């Protein structure tokens, strides 16, 4: 097949325009074109009155080879890469050892699925509950302020991204096309087909819940085992080789191949790993606030007269500003038409994040506006970043009224350094609730200074960003793990513990659903190859 890229057509192009573009670009007749499908569809909205759709197409013709020769020097015409997933191993007939996956977020899910598909019958240990029970606990916290520290936004089947916007794009390098494998598995589990071709696919919370259940069923059908409410509290290591785990209920499970895919909020488990001597380093992350605007104002700023167009959907944005004090401020995890959610997994702490449904039709747009920080801001060893996060989250809890409401401030008041007297046009979506206050005390001074400088700069890119009624809610501290569990670049094992595979966001190898899922596939392959090597 032939891949044609960068085909630009107007937003309102008719149904035959794509085919006509192919014929004229390749200089072939309609009879020579056998079929085509859209590999990717994005848009260029730099000119709001002339928004263009940009297509990448995969095409089959009666003369593929001739065309590839004819257009050999043409940047837009290439051979379609192999998008099929090819398993790297098959489990031996007599499997003497089953790999363990700790954590059932996107990383653990894909690791377990791929291992199961290759015949390794993995055992998954997940501290939280299965997704329907977890949904009740999570929504219970948002509605009634009753937090279950083992079953919440961060912990439970599906991991941290289950109650999310379900954005699936990532900027990681992916030469082996693992992201295609992830998308295909998601579609097979019920995700909409369009995630295969839109340039910024997203799924939304309720679809994610159903998909996770289907993927779990497939793993079990293939001989895998998934245990919920199974928190790993201890790791056994003999002569630098991991040999098993102990669960919170005291049960011991033996394996010499264990993946640690525990996400960025498993602070107790990070401490356990550190105490066991697993090599960990402190790593940079970011802190800030969630900002909310009316979605209609973001649509207008981004799409002008085309705001509301069905193909474009609810508008997003991506913003960066480099500040005079040397810090960078950027927008993160933007959720068009979504809500701001309470994302703590620990008592008496307040953490914000964002989610939306597939329809993205809530009143507000939200995103985190965060400042990059690094270990020099929180000196004190590998786990010092966790204490830094905890301090900010505890302080936010007190600022919000010590009842899980979050502290919030209108942008107008924030820029002036005043406590707002009342809300304006932007109605807060955060549940359980917010308390209007002065946020300048919620983060270190250098962060506040940087965000105050960035908001007017962002207003130049997205008109209305500095609207005085826009609302900021805090604090956003769980942007990524504050640690890196170092692993060997080739074997993917911990650099000082054989058989232990640090993986996903919690170990510092992913930042989002897609990159965590891709890392899960890599880990599964490394574990499978190592198991086979030992059987020889
Ligand atoms: P996680 O998903 O965090 O999964 C780790 C799992 O390990 C958890 O289920 C946890 O319960 C379990 N665990 C932890 N410790 C133990 C233990 N000791 N024993 C057993 N189990 C344990 N990313 C995007 O790309 N797009 C988005 O739209 C998006 N929105 C988000 C919205 C919210 C509200 C949140 C919280 C996150 C969002 N993210 C989003 C980030 C994304 O969810 C994470 O990057 C991703 O889930 C990381 O995957 P993971 O598998 O590495 O870890």
From TrEMBL:
<dbReference type="Pfam" id="PF21688">
    <property type="entry name" value="FAD-depend_C"/>
</dbReference>
<dbReference type="InterPro" id="IPR036188">
    <property type="entry name" value="FAD/NAD-bd_sf"/>
</dbReference>
<dbReference type="InterPro" id="IPR049516">
    <property type="entry name" value="FAD-depend_C"/>
</dbReference>
<protein>
    <submittedName>
        <fullName>NAD(P)/FAD-dependent oxidoreductase</fullName>
    </submittedName>
</protein>
<dbReference type="InterPro" id="IPR028348">
    <property type="entry name" value="FAD-binding_protein"/>
</dbReference>
<feature type="domain" description="FAD-dependent protein C-terminal">
    <location>
        <begin position="284"/>
        <end position="479"/>
    </location>
</feature>
